[in-house]
Amino acid sequence: MLESVRRRNFAYGASLAASVIVLAGGIVTLQNVATAQQNMVDVPMFEVDPLWPKPIPNEGLFGNVIGASVDAQDNVWVTHRGAANLNNNEKGSTLNPPVSICCGAAPPVLAFNPAGDTIHAWGGPGQGYEWPESMHGIFVDHKGFVWLGGNGAKDSQILKFTKEGKFVAQSGHQGKNEGSNDPVNFGRVAQLLIDPKTNKGYVADGYKNRRVAMIDGDTGKIEKFWGAYGNKPDDAPHGPYKPGDALQQYRSPVHCIALSNDDLLYVCDRQGDRVQVFQKDGKYLKEAFFARNTLASGSTWEVAFSRDPEQKFMYITDGQNERVRIVERSTLTELAAFGRGGRQPSYFFGVHSIATDSKGNIYTTETYEGKRVQKFNFKGIGKLPRGTDQGAVWPKIAG
Question: Is the pTM of this model over 0.85?
Answer without folding.
Answer: yes
